């Protein structure tokens, strides 16, 4: 396995001294605007761009000393990127927030005034996109998505920058928090990891959901009574999904609480899977949104300095089982892949 100098440099920039990705995520846009509006009791349209920028700056300033990298967006996050700690690399999102809801398939779109070259020019060490995906969609829909990812992968190759692909599973017309979807989720995640490991996509890191819904794992903290899997079955799903990956993969927090994400990482560790870290957003700072909405940025910074730092350190402490991203290729260091 060979990795180009530019991709090596980018991967090193977003990893810690162990070669593990312990990154924070703050690229939320539509969902963040809605959450601030809810906390303030105002219309979403009344949440100004200045509020979005202020929130992202606070999170970046306080949390990046404890992270190997921060994921931001070019729309509201560029000023925050300049405030990150020197130890933290930068990933920038390339996709528009949300998806096309005028037709089936949750089709994605890229930021109109951006390209991989422009993202690199803005200081990014890595390019990230998010894609709603299920292997069980009609081939016509998935063919569009496959071509979309191939184009972005080719852009990243041309600019010699690492490509992080985040995919989020769904089912058209279904409730993704339901027991029914929980039973299908292992196959959705595993199939997606298998698909986007293929070389034509040029993906360097798969940013993946865990293959189970912790609310339906028997005996888990969040268990609702109904179960989709025993703890041993859940661990088996982790292993089966991981076996599909031909690229390094990291876990996303998917909006769950800090406690739930910590439990999830413990389950991943117990299963012995070869994951290379996390890109964790809302599990770290989500509870700070109502603090900001009611009391302003200083109160948010105080909350982040206490609870937010505890949250990110809780996640970091669960990464002892994570493996260096280069170990996925059997290398003892990134340089050995050159």
Architecture blueprint of SSEs:
Layout: H1 5-14, E1 21-25, H2 30-40, H3 49-63, E2 69-72, H4 78-81, E3 89-93, H5 116-121, E4 126-132, H6 139-158, E5 163-168, H7 179-196, E6 205-208, H8 231-244, E7 249-252, H9 258-271, E8 277-280, H10 282-285, H11 288-295, H12 297-317
Parallel strand pairs: 1-2, 1-8, 2-3, 3-4, 4-5, 5-6, 6-7, 7-8
What attributes characterize this protein structure?
single chain, 338 residues, alpha/beta, TIM Barrel, 12 helices, 43% helix, 12% strand
Task: Give a written overview of the molecule.
This protein is of the alpha/beta class. The chain has one domain (5-337): Alpha-Beta Barrel (TIM Barrel), CATH 3.20.20. Helices cover 43% and strands 12% of the residues. It has helices spanning 5-14, 30-40, 49-63, 78-81, 116-121, 139-158, 179-196, 231-244, 258-271, 282-285, 288-295, 297-317, and strands spanning 21-25, 69-72, 89-93, 126-132, 163-168, 205-208, 249-252, 277-280. Strands 1-2-3-4-5-6-7-8 form an eight-stranded parallel beta barrel, surrounded by five helices. It is globular, with a radius of gyration of 19 Å. The termini are close together. The model has no long low-confidence stretch (mean pLDDT 96).
């Amino acid at each position: 396995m060979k990795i180009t100098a530019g991709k090596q440099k980018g991967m090193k920039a977003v990893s810690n001294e162990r070669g593990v990705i312990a990154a924070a995520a703050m690229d939320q846009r539509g969902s963040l605007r809605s959450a601030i509006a809810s906390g303030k009791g105002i219309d979403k349209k009344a949440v100004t761009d200045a509020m979005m920028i202020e929130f992202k700056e606070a999170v970046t300033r306080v949390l990046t000393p404890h992270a190997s990298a921060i994921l931001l967006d070019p729309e509201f996050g560029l000023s925050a990127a300049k405030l990150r700690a020197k130890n933290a690399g930068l990933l920038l999102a390339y996709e528009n927030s949300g998806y096309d809801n005028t037709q089936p398939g949750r089709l994605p779109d890229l930021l109109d005034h951006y390209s991989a070259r422009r993202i690199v020019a803005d200081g990014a060490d890595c390019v990230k996109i998010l894609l709603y995906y299920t292997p069980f969609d009609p081939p016509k829909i998935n063919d569009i998505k496959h071509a979309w990812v191939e184009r972005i992968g080719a852009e990243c190759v041309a600019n010699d920058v690492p490509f992080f692909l985040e995919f989020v599973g769904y089912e058209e017309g279904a409730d993704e928090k339901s027991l029914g979807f929980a039973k299908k989720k292992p196959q959705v995640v595993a199939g997606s990891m298998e698909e986007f490991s293929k070389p034509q996509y040029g993906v360097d890191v798969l940013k993946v959901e865990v293959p189970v819904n912790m609310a339906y794992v028997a005996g888990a903290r969040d268990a609702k009574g109904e179960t989709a899997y025993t703890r041993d079955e859940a661990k088996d799903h982790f292993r089966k999904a991981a076996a599909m990956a031909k690229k390094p993969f990291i876990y996303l927090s998917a909006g769950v609480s800090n406690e739930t994400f910590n439990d999830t990482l413990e389950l991943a560790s117990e299963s012995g899977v070869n994951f290379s870290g996390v890109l964790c957003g809302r599990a770290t700072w989500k509870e700070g949104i109502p603090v900001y909405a009611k009391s302003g940025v200083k109160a948010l910074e105080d909350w982040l300095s206490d609870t937010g730092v505890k949250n990110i350190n809780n996640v970091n402490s669960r990464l002892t089982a994570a493996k260096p991203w280069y170990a996925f290729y059997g290398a003892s260091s990134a340089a050995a892949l050159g």
